[in-house]
Amino acid sequence: MPTPQENARLEQIKKSWKEKRQITDRLAKIKSKIGVYSGKGGVGKTTVAVNLAVTLAQQGHAVGLLDVDIDCPNVTKVLGISEKPDYVDGQILPSEKWGVRVVSMAFFQENEEEAIIWRGPMIHNAINQFLQITEWGELDYLVVDLPPGTSDSPLTVMQTLPMDGFVVVSTPQELANMDAKRCINMIRKLNLNVLGVVENYTGEIFGEGGGKRLAKEVDAPFLGNLALRASYQDSSMPTTLADSSVNEEYTNLAKAVKESLKELGREAA
Ligand SMILES: Nc1ncnc2c1ncn2[C@@H]1O[C@H](COP(=O)(O)OP(=O)(O)O)[C@@H](O)[C@H]1O
Ligand SMILES: [Mg+2]
Fold it and tell me: Of the bound ligands, which one is closest to the alpha carbon of residue 169?
């Protein structure tokens, strides 16, 4: 006869096994899971995640966008989504905007100003639950906006979500890329893939080249430059839909990301 302690332990194992299987089942219909990541906030991580997702959708792919930047979940704000996703029969059905299915941690914040201060296990549990009950349907790509840096939050997200690879957003300036380098080391320490480095804010003001140099230094593909442009100030729609030069940059980025995925044997379509 098993002791009550043994029984409890057995139940625990069964429960976590069931959870894992549920997540695997949910994510089985997603062909490629792409994380967008950076050394620090403010480098344009959310901008890249949103515009990359919208560009892929525009090309006819089925695309989801998951915002798990716990400390600063603002994907919905950038996309102008105010209504919460449908919650039907214990399932979250993503909201849809610009052809992209969207789920964000922000949906579960009580109010906008409230900073979420969560520790590892809470983040792990929240993301696990998210993944278990969100019905994405069939997806070619799931783009994930991660928390920046190398603290507990991004680490937990990376360990919880089975990503195919990461797009690292950096800037033209050398100094900022020290952080990006640390991020790349963390990704690789976890035995995960770096799809490449993209440089944002390229142009006269901040210069050009930091991203390319970083990519070379860490032996990762360089995915391209995204110029600093005034057109990003218009928040009525994703800039890739409003500015043809930006659209061209994102079309190239999408192409480079697909090539990296292919190289790793993880391409979606
Ligand atoms: N290439 C760019 N040119 C001009 N403004 C940009 C560009 N990329 C991002 N921004 C702006 O910079 C701000 C920070 O970008 P965001 O994507 O929120 O950064 P992060 O998610 O890394 O904190 C936003 O107001 C965004 O519109
Ligand atoms: Mg952000």
Answer: 1
- Chain centroid to CA 104: 11
Please report whether residue 110 resides in a domain: yes
25 domain residue, yes or no: no
Closest CA to 98 of 125, 73, 124, 63: 63
Domain carrying residue 54: 30-263
Which ligand has an atom closest to residue 72 CA? Answer: 2
Which ligand 1 atom minimizes the distance to the CA of 145? 21
Task: Spell out the per-residue pLDDT of the chain, length 269, in tens.
Answer: 889 999 999 998 998 888 888 888 888 899 999 999 999 999 999 999 999 999 999 999 999 999 998 888 889 888 888 878 888 888 889 999 999 999 988 877 666 666 666 777 788 888 888 888 899 999 999 999 999 998 888 888 888 888 999 999 999 987 778 999 999 999 999 999 999 999 999 999 999 999 999 999 999 999 999 999 999 999 899 999 999 999 999 999 999 999 999 999 887 75
Domain containing residue 42: CATH number: 3.40.50.300
- Asked if residues 42 and 74 have their Cβ atoms less than 8 Å apart, the reply is no
Total number of domains constituting the chain: 1
Quote the tokens at residue 221.
Answer: 């593909």
Within a domain: 14:
no
